[in-house]
Amino acid sequence: MTPRLELKSVTRRFDGQPVVDGIDLTLRAGEVACLLGPSGCGKSTTLRLAAGVDSPDGGEVLIDGEVVADGRRNLPPEHRSIGLMFQDFALFPHLDVARNVAFGLSGGKAEQMARVTELLGKVGLAGYEGKFPHQLSGGEQQRVALARALAPRPAIMLMDEPFSGLDKRLRDGIRDETLDILREEGTAVLLVTHEPDEAMRMADKIALMRNGRIVQVGNPYSVYTKPVDKEAAAFFSDINVVHGVVASGSAETPFGQFLTPGLVDGADVEIIFRPQHLRLDFPRKGAPVRPTVEHGVPAMGTVARVRFVGNQSIVELEMEADQSIVRAIIPGVFMPPEGTPLVLSLRRDICHVFPCAVQTRVDDPWLHQAAE
């Protein structure tokens, strides 16, 4: 099947510096893809290049197999069969809801109003035709913007942080409703976001961006569970890092040995695991700490700090082996006093071993901070 949207080695420079650096991405009919990454990584510029609002310096943008931009020509947005949605909704304040939705529609007035009525019904705003944007809530304005973007039946919907301006209590519901409508319309969707939760919730495919490049592409499960490097793992959640040195194909750590295939002896490695994958147990009096099949070699730690955050407890522990700090996230209430000794264990199959290019302190605050 010909991709609905395809970016081939697309590049964009500002003042000689690449902001988008050789992007390759495909989007098929009915697919929802997210460009995910921190602010300034090139996500929105990539979306503008796909829309035709900006022109690439190199590479090609194709829609349904036809080149619409290649560094020499740039087909305007109105000729690309795309819909655009932005964070500020961009509704016309002097037009009522019906005329906002109908803006840009061709055909007779009766045909336009039939489409307006159909879409307002889909977005739950039947009867709002005569209202003006200032009379609507933020969630209602977002629904009008969606109806307007869908009105011409675009083949592709391009969305730049469209939900970030909404109240958090409303965001999940409106986001899910929007996605249902887009899928019902059969529209291919390319969404820009800096929020991993939003990308995981909405996308069939996530393209993780960093410094103008896509560093990893895959479905949400594979991108989360098989990160390409430490930075990719840290973008989705807090992480813990323990260090080791390769010797005869493995590295010794406080949690025992980890295999390091393909790495030379003496290489520094980082073993990455998420706080929710760390298991905590109280030591049994007089019972030795032994490895288990599921959780490998246990280590000893002492509670340094505990915080309860509503539906889970965050426990920081000082490891007995090297005095480094690791975090555990425990569902519900778990509030052992500071200084309490605990047994720490984790499963090997959810750990990631990466070469360490630059030796980093285990208690570096960056390691416990997801990218903004």
From TrEMBL:
Molecular function via GO: ABC-type ferric iron transporter activity; ATP binding; ATP hydrolysis activity
Boundaries of every ABC transporter domain copy: 5-236
Catalytic activity, EC: 3.6.3.30
Single GO BP term: quaternary ammonium group transport
PROSITE patterns listed in its UniProt record: ABC_TRANSPORTER_1 (PS00211), ABC_TRANSPORTER_2 (PS50893)
InterPro entries named in the record: AAA+_ATPase, ABC_SmlMolc_Importer, ABC_transporter-like_ATP-bd, ABC_transporter-like_CS, ABC_transpr_FbpC, Mo/tungstate-bd_C_term_dom, P-loop_NTPase, Transp-assoc_OB_typ2
Keyword NAD: no
Keyword Translocase: yes
A GO CC term attached to the entry: membrane
Top-rank taxon, per record: Bacteria
Keywords, ordered alphabetically: ATP-binding, Cell inner membrane, Cell membrane, Hydrolase, Ion transport, Iron, Iron transport, Membrane, Nucleotide-binding, Translocase, Transport
Name of the protein in question: Fe(3+) ions import ATP-binding protein FbpC
Gene: fbpC
